[in-house]
Design a protein that fits this description.
alpha+beta; 3 domains; 25 strands; Heterokaryon incompatibility domain-containing protein
Length: 585
């Protein structure tokens, strides 16, 4: 039976009807397997348990139940609505059969489908995973479901996550890879409800959200003094969108006081000041104690579902009671299917935030550089990061700031960043480079000569050989006549998927052990040799100015390969070195 998710919910007293429904039987049998595994898990080897499920393991004792289409759509009122809550809604596919399995700590569904448009058979994971609700309050051996308030979140749990991170995560989460070039201008004082001048020693929380087309209160030169008056934000409350209002209410519940929000803490019509602040956005978010992420909203009016005291209650997925002791919860993975994850401006906010409190799909999760905690998942405190990932694909969407700050250039890291970023949406296409400027600035250790429209000067000819992934690129267009989008020779001038590792970019490989492993047999890359010298012009009639530092890494590589002898002073080429390295003497 389907019931609301409350502590006082009614539970079934019998298993009537289960004997005639094979899907409910499979759920019950698999739930017992999960419970038995958890009860007997005196010591869990998490590194082995949560390996990538696509890797074959002959010792893996998987439990699998396969059901036909008729056994799924059998009119059962017990599981009908429960299954609909986790199934896809694509009308162009027809479910052939369903596979329920428990393997490597994951209890999941796989649907095998037939595409009604072309008749091809294909399989895909349902965007949901089952969790056994931890009704016994026993220490879980694997992730179990946690009973949640159906309307409101629990700030005490958020404070607990924060405490664990601050006390147990060593130096990784506190470490900052960027720094502010100039001080922040303003912060929101959630106690006095006004803007205050920011000081270097003020700890603050940031908000990452989607603006959309919302007509909201923005700080300008005309109203900044008014907004600095105590209580001023209460007077303007009707002009502050729900997401920002909810964040202001949440900050004190996290034992913090100050909040940074771009629309209010940047003077929007002071172009010079605004540009300087936008150009250090990575450092602003990295310096923050944590970032509140409004992942699910289409715009700034969406709010943060579940914050008590706001007219914005959340909607949880239903639970299914199989017996009075066994309850199954649905866990949907929609974090990477939201407007926030598709927006270009949020890329560097996501990448550089050291700690994120993410509101998505009715539940909240904590993501820091050491762990992931989920509101609806009760997991062992000593479990490693991957023990809390419900789908491994999730880790691929955020660039690793530690990779971006490498001292040596690696185009595979840059190309992975670009591959994700190139498909992001912008209200104004001309913002694509500006919204990435702070990230490119953070990569200056590896690319000290900088970038031109997203192409690294040191690898300029390699960068020009970017290519589309498949087809469907569309030219980015300025929002008005004076707006300038990147040129067509840059990937940034196009909207669509870019090849994450084109052969021309991998051809610059010169490291014996690059950070990323090759997915298959790695053949020696072909060579790219610069043949031209590139110049720029202000106008068609103005004289050409050579682009400085173009392709300097090609010179370094040819020296490394022994093809040039003009080494820097006091360096020599060591012929007997099998790795053909240069040595300084």
């Amino acid at each position: 039976m389907l019931v609301a998710t409350e502590h006082s919910e009614a539970k079934p007293s019998t298993q009537d009807g289960f004997s005639s429904c094979k899907f409910c039987q499979a759920l019950l049998e698999s739930a017992k397997v999960v419970r038995n595994f958890n009860d007997n898990a005196t010591h869990v080897d998490y590194e082995r348990l949560y390996e990538n499920y696509s890797v074959y393991d002959e010792d893996d004792e998987s439990a699998i139940w396969v059901l036909t289409q008729d056994e799924i759509n059998n009119g059962c009122q017990q599981h009908g609505e429960f299954y609909n809550a986790c199934a896809h809604t694509n009308t162009d596919v027809h479910v052939l059969e369903l596979e329920l399995s428990f393997s490597k700590g994951k209890w999941k569904l796989t649907e095998f489908r037939k595409d009604t448009k072309n008749g091809e058979r294909r399989s895909s994971f349902v965007k949901a995973e089952f969790l056994l609700v931890n009704e016994l309050a026993s220490k879980p051996g694997v992730g179990l479901g946690r009973v949640l308030d159906p309307q409101f979140t629990d700030p005490a749990l958020f404070r607990q996550w924060k405490k664990v991170c601050l006390e147990d995560h060593g130096a990784k989460c506190p470490k900052k890879l960027t720094q502010l070039d100039e001080p922040l201008l303003y912060l929101i004082d959630t106690k006095q409800m006004c803007l205050v001048s920011a000081a270097d020693d003020m700890a603050y929380v940031t908000l990452s959200y989607v603006w959309g087309q919302t007509d909201m209160l923005k700080t300008s030169r005309a109203n900044v003094d008014k907004l600095r008056e105590i209580g001023s934000l209460l007077k303007f409350e009707d002009r502050i969108p729900a997401t920002i209002r909810d964040a202001i209410k949440l900050v004190p519940l996290l034992d913090e006081r100050y909040l940074w929000v771009d629309s209010l803490c940047i003077v929007q019509d002071d172009k010079a000041s605004a540009y300087r602040q936008i150009n250090q956005m990575a450092a602003i978010y990295e310096k923050a104690t944590l970032t509140i992420v409004a992942s699910g909203g289409e715009d700034a009016t969406a709010g943060l579902p579940g914050i008590r005291g706001t007219p914005n209650p959340r909607q949880l997925s239903p639970h299914l009671w199989l017996t009075p002791e066994i309850c199954v919860a649905i866990r949907k993975e929609t974090y990477h299917q939201t407007p926030w994850t598709r927006r270009g401006w949020t890329t560097q906010e996501d990448t550089f935030s050291r700690r994120k409190l993410i509101f998505s799909a009715g539940t909240v999760r904590w993501v820091c550089r050491s762990s992931i905690f989920c509101e609806d998942v009760d997991s062992p405190r000593n479990a490693p990061v991957m023990a809390l990932y419900r789908e491994r694909i999730e880790e691929l969407y955020s660039a690793n700031p530690f990779d971006l700050s490498l001292d040596v250039p690696d185009l595979s890291i840059l190309s992975n960043l670009i591959s994700n970023y190139s498909c992001r949406d912008f209200t104004y296409d001309e913002d694509i480079i500006l919204a990435l400027s702070s990230t490119l600035k953070a990569m200056r250790n590896a690319f000290p000569h900088g970038f031109v429209y997203g192409l690294p000067l040191s690898f300029f000819d390699y960068g020009l050989l970017w290519r589309a992934w498949g087809s469907g690129l569309n030219r980015r267009r300025g929002s008005h006549d004076d707006a300038v989008c990147p040129p067509s020779w840059s990937w940034a001038g196009w909207l669509g998927p870019i090849d994450s590792c084109p052969g021309s970019w991998s051809a610059e490989t010169y490291m014996k052990n690059p950070p990323f492993r090759w997915s298959g047999p790695h053949r020696p890359p072909f060579q790219v040799m610069p043949l031209l010298k590139w110049s720029t012009k202000v106008t068609q009639e103005s004289p050409s100015v050579p682009i400085p530092f173009q392709n300097t890494c090609y010179g370094y590589k040819t020296r490394f390969m022994g093809e040039k002898n003009d080494l820097p002073p006091r360096w020599k080429y060591k012929l007997e070195d099998p790795d053909r390295l240069h040595r300084h003497r």
